[in-house]
Amino acid sequence: MDNNYEIKIYRNWLEVAALEKSWADLIKRSEVNYIFNTFTWCKTWWRNFGAKQELFVLTVSCSDNLVALAPLMIKRKKYFKFFIRKELTFIGTPEADYCDFIIDQKHQSVIYQLIWQKILDYCQSEKVVISFKDVPTKSLLSGSWHQIAYPYKSVYQGDDCYQLNYADFSLTQLDQFINKRDTKQKIKKLNRLGEINMYWIKDSEELDLRLADFFMLFQKRALQKGYLRFFNHHAYQDFFRELCREFLNQGLLRLWVLTINKKTVALDINFLYNNVYARYLPAFDRTYARYSPGLILLEKVISAGKLEANVYDFLRGGETYKENYINIRNKNQTLNLYPNKLTFVFWEKWFNFRIRLKKIKILGLFYHYFKCFFF
Questions:
Q1: Domains defined along the chain, listed by start
Q2: Alpha-carbon span 132 to 148, nearest angstrom
């Protein structure tokens, strides 16, 4: 190891909190600058969900300067109601759409080797499975992963990630690109129902009111589709409410609302960070579904985004409607690494079995209920 580098692992959040300023400075010097890697996101997630996890924040310093940070944790996942698997994964999983190491660009080539060696040693000694989900395909972490000379590892393609590069369009061209003819007709029909208003929230009091509407609409849609979503649990509502308040105070929240006669019909939660307008979650009132209020609001949001950002990012999910609004296609990856051959063979067979099961519609439904019962 290069003697100029010092590696440290933090197991207590109070110690990590002291790194807030250094963390913020480092992320500005890193190629990895997603909102999901910020101190605010990780702090808020850990405050709400960290009680059942073990902290494993790995840092690398050079001459007392922070040059790398891996925001990791050890999660205990229960399988078949009795078997527990220890996983080293990113803080925020699975709520974070992009996960990665934060490394100073000047030190990248050396530091990746140091971090991987430390993680591999820990993985083998403590029998911990490494499971890095939602790593962007173009990430340097993904590239360094393939260079590891270690037999018990795997890579799986994850969710599609769609983006719109604003630089390819003028304001007029963008308007022609995103405003579809059928949407314009639906706006006219919606106008007959009352006064339409679309805006983003700047007031903390209104934020709480609109978030209550958001949770209600999101849950209602989930129940109609026959599945449960995380807003059914108060812990997730508390996390999201706290996160939105934090980002509102920092000027990073863009919670858009579409109202008819002051009644909330659609909401679209976006984050503005590092010149990227990121769409996290939408919700709309299903009673207005034939008017497509969600798409009407989305087109308004995309148009407004060009004035503040360089890219509009739909984040995870390959929903068909997104293809009408994008010109960039990316993918996330899941990177798995196992401490020995036995765990590698067992979990890879189980992982492949789940993938095949989900591809068959009827068996996929069976798997959903099977997972709810046994996991």
A1: 5-157+334-339 (3.40.630.30), 170-305 (3.40.630.30)
A2: 15
Confidence (pLDDT) at 154: 86
Q: Indicate the average pLDDT of the chain.
A: 88
Please name the residues in contact with 121: beta carbons below 8 A apart, sequence gap of 6 or more. Answer: none
Q: Is the pLDDT of residue 49 over 90?
A: yes
- The upper half-sphere exposure of residue 211, i.e. CA atoms within 13 Å in the direction of its Cβ, equals 23
Helix (H, G, I), strand (E, B) or coil at 129: strand
DSSP one-letter string for 234-247: HHHHHHHHHHHHHH
Per residue in 294-316, pLDDT (tens digit) is 999 999 999 999 999 999 999 99
Show Cβ contacts of residue 89 under 8 Å, excluding neighbours closer than 6 positions.
72, 73, 74, 75, 130, 131, 132, 133
DSSP-derived letter for residue 130 is E
Stretch 354-360: mean pLDDT: 65
| Tokens linked to 261 | 């006669």
3-state SS assignment for residue 356:
helix
Q: Is 25 helix (H, G, I), strand (E, B) or coil?
A: helix
The answer to whether the CB of 121 falls within 8 A of the CB of 108 is no
Q: Look up the pTM and report it.
A: 0.89
As a whole number of angstroms, the distance between CA 133 and CA 118 comes to: 19
% of the chain beyond a pLDDT of 90: 61
**C-alpha separations of 276 from 3, 34, 109, 261, 307 in Å:** 38, 9, 27, 32, 11
CA dihedral 221, 40, 251, 311 (to 10 degrees): -70
Portion of the chain with pLDDT greater than 70, in percent: 89
Is 290's pLDDT higher than 80? Answer: yes
Phi, psi of 21 (to 5 degrees): -65, -45
CA distance 207 to 357: 41
Q: Residue 258: beta bridge partners?
A: 198, 266
